[in-house]
Write a structure and sequence with these properties.
Elements lengths: L6 E5 L5 H7 L3 H7 L9 H12 L5 E7 L2 E11 L2 E8 L8 H12 L5 E6 L3 H9 L3 E10 L4 E10 L1
Parallel strand pairs: 4-5
Antiparallel strand pairs: 1-2, 2-3, 3-4, 5-7, 6-7
Protein backbone atom coordinates (compact mmCIF):
# COMPACT_ATOMS: atom_id res chain seq x y z
CA UNK A 1 0.00 0.00 0.00
CA UNK A 2 1.45 3.36 -1.02
CA UNK A 3 1.86 5.94 1.80
CA UNK A 4 -1.00 8.17 0.59
CA UNK A 5 -3.37 5.19 0.59
CA UNK A 6 -2.77 4.20 4.22
CA UNK A 7 -6.05 4.07 6.12
CA UNK A 8 -6.44 6.62 8.90
CA UNK A 9 -8.99 6.19 11.69
CA UNK A 10 -10.83 8.99 13.39
CA UNK A 11 -13.90 8.97 15.63
CA UNK A 12 -17.05 8.77 13.56
CA UNK A 13 -18.98 12.01 13.32
CA UNK A 14 -22.64 12.46 12.46
CA UNK A 15 -21.57 14.00 9.13
CA UNK A 16 -19.90 10.65 8.17
CA UNK A 17 -23.13 8.68 8.39
CA UNK A 18 -24.51 9.71 4.99
CA UNK A 19 -21.44 8.30 3.21
CA UNK A 20 -21.40 5.18 5.35
CA UNK A 21 -25.09 4.59 4.60
CA UNK A 22 -24.32 4.48 0.87
CA UNK A 23 -21.76 1.66 1.32
CA UNK A 24 -24.30 -0.70 2.80
CA UNK A 25 -26.61 -0.25 -0.21
CA UNK A 26 -24.18 -2.39 -2.25
CA UNK A 27 -25.98 -5.72 -2.83
CA UNK A 28 -22.81 -7.84 -3.00
CA UNK A 29 -21.43 -6.31 0.19
CA UNK A 30 -24.77 -6.81 1.92
CA UNK A 31 -24.86 -10.44 0.83
CA UNK A 32 -21.37 -11.08 2.24
CA UNK A 33 -22.12 -9.25 5.48
CA UNK A 34 -25.34 -11.33 5.70
CA UNK A 35 -26.44 -10.05 9.12
CA UNK A 36 -27.67 -6.62 8.11
CA UNK A 37 -30.64 -4.33 8.60
CA UNK A 38 -34.03 -5.65 7.53
CA UNK A 39 -34.27 -2.83 4.99
CA UNK A 40 -30.83 -1.49 4.04
CA UNK A 41 -32.46 1.20 1.90
CA UNK A 42 -34.20 2.83 4.89
CA UNK A 43 -31.92 5.83 5.41
CA UNK A 44 -34.01 7.28 8.23
CA UNK A 45 -33.74 4.05 10.26
CA UNK A 46 -29.99 3.86 9.52
CA UNK A 47 -29.37 7.43 10.66
CA UNK A 48 -31.51 6.96 13.76
CA UNK A 49 -29.68 3.77 14.76
CA UNK A 50 -26.17 5.12 14.22
CA UNK A 51 -26.92 8.52 15.76
CA UNK A 52 -27.80 6.61 18.95
CA UNK A 53 -24.59 4.56 18.60
CA UNK A 54 -22.54 7.74 18.43
CA UNK A 55 -24.01 8.77 21.80
CA UNK A 56 -23.40 5.38 23.46
CA UNK A 57 -20.18 5.45 25.54
CA UNK A 58 -19.82 1.64 25.28
CA UNK A 59 -19.49 1.87 21.47
CA UNK A 60 -16.24 2.96 19.85
CA UNK A 61 -17.04 3.95 16.25
CA UNK A 62 -14.25 5.01 13.93
CA UNK A 63 -14.42 6.13 10.31
CA UNK A 64 -11.74 4.80 7.98
CA UNK A 65 -10.28 7.48 5.70
CA UNK A 66 -8.06 7.06 2.64
CA UNK A 67 -6.75 10.50 1.81
CA UNK A 68 -9.78 12.80 1.70
CA UNK A 69 -12.34 10.00 1.18
CA UNK A 70 -14.24 7.76 3.55
CA UNK A 71 -13.38 4.13 2.84
CA UNK A 72 -15.36 2.44 5.60
CA UNK A 73 -16.05 2.11 9.28
CA UNK A 74 -14.98 0.00 12.21
CA UNK A 75 -16.49 -0.28 15.65
CA UNK A 76 -16.44 -2.04 19.00
CA UNK A 77 -19.74 -2.76 20.69
CA UNK A 78 -21.01 -4.91 23.51
CA UNK A 79 -23.68 -7.55 23.18
CA UNK A 80 -24.78 -10.42 25.40
CA UNK A 81 -21.88 -9.67 27.75
CA UNK A 82 -19.26 -9.94 24.99
CA UNK A 83 -17.18 -7.26 23.30
CA UNK A 84 -17.43 -7.53 19.52
CA UNK A 85 -15.83 -5.92 16.50
CA UNK A 86 -17.53 -4.96 13.27
CA UNK A 87 -16.26 -3.28 10.13
CA UNK A 88 -17.50 -2.34 6.68
CA UNK A 89 -15.27 -1.41 3.78
CA UNK A 90 -16.54 0.25 0.61
CA UNK A 91 -16.33 -2.37 -2.16
CA UNK A 92 -14.13 0.01 -4.20
CA UNK A 93 -11.43 -0.65 -1.57
CA UNK A 94 -11.71 -4.44 -1.26
CA UNK A 95 -8.58 -6.49 -1.79
CA UNK A 96 -6.16 -3.67 -0.97
CA UNK A 97 -5.35 -4.58 2.63
CA UNK A 98 -7.34 -1.65 4.00
CA UNK A 99 -9.55 -3.72 6.31
CA UNK A 100 -6.54 -5.54 7.79
CA UNK A 101 -4.54 -2.34 8.30
CA UNK A 102 -7.55 -0.52 9.77
CA UNK A 103 -8.35 -3.40 12.14
CA UNK A 104 -4.73 -3.60 13.34
CA UNK A 105 -4.81 0.16 14.04
CA UNK A 106 -8.19 -0.11 15.74
CA UNK A 107 -6.99 -2.90 18.03
CA UNK A 108 -4.28 -0.55 19.34
CA UNK A 109 -6.95 2.05 20.20
CA UNK A 110 -9.45 -0.46 21.52
CA UNK A 111 -7.74 -2.56 24.19
CA UNK A 112 -10.77 -4.44 25.55
CA UNK A 113 -10.06 -8.19 25.47
CA UNK A 114 -11.25 -10.67 24.75
CA UNK A 115 -12.89 -9.26 21.65
CA UNK A 116 -14.93 -11.30 19.21
CA UNK A 117 -15.64 -11.10 15.50
CA UNK A 118 -18.46 -12.90 13.72
CA UNK A 119 -18.44 -13.59 10.02
CA UNK A 120 -20.65 -15.48 7.58
CA UNK A 121 -19.24 -18.91 6.72
CA UNK A 122 -18.60 -17.91 3.10
CA UNK A 123 -17.16 -14.43 3.67
CA UNK A 124 -13.58 -15.58 3.09
CA UNK A 125 -12.17 -12.06 2.80
CA UNK A 126 -13.37 -11.08 6.25
CA UNK A 127 -12.20 -14.38 7.72
CA UNK A 128 -8.69 -13.66 6.37
CA UNK A 129 -8.76 -10.13 7.84
CA UNK A 130 -9.58 -11.48 11.30
CA UNK A 131 -6.93 -14.20 11.07
CA UNK A 132 -4.23 -11.73 9.91
CA UNK A 133 -5.04 -9.65 12.99
CA UNK A 134 -4.55 -12.56 15.39
CA UNK A 135 -8.14 -13.70 15.84
CA UNK A 136 -8.63 -17.46 16.25
CA UNK A 137 -11.77 -19.28 15.09
CA UNK A 138 -13.37 -20.61 18.27
CA UNK A 139 -16.82 -21.73 17.20
CA UNK A 140 -19.85 -21.23 15.05
CA UNK A 141 -23.45 -20.20 15.36
CA UNK A 142 -26.49 -19.89 13.14
CA UNK A 143 -28.80 -16.96 12.77
CA UNK A 144 -31.29 -15.39 10.42
CA UNK A 145 -29.48 -13.24 7.87
CA UNK A 146 -31.65 -10.40 6.62
CA UNK A 147 -29.52 -9.89 3.52
CA UNK A 148 -30.09 -13.51 2.46
CA UNK A 149 -33.53 -14.06 3.94
CA UNK A 150 -32.47 -17.40 5.38
CA UNK A 151 -30.60 -18.89 8.30
CA UNK A 152 -26.84 -18.68 7.80
CA UNK A 153 -23.91 -20.25 9.61
CA UNK A 154 -21.43 -17.77 11.02
CA UNK A 155 -17.97 -18.36 12.41
CA UNK A 156 -16.97 -16.86 15.73
CA UNK A 157 -13.43 -15.53 16.07
CA UNK A 158 -11.74 -14.44 19.30
CA UNK A 159 -8.76 -12.25 20.10
CA UNK A 160 -7.63 -12.90 23.69
Amino acid sequence: MAPNTQPVLRPTEHADLAALFLFQLDKEANYLAAFTAKDPTDKEAYLEKYTKCLQDPTINMQTIWIGESIAGSIAKFETRGDTEITYWIDRNHWGKGIATTALKSFLILETMRPIFGRVAFDNFGSQKVLEKCGFIKTGNDKGFANARQTEVEEFIYKLA
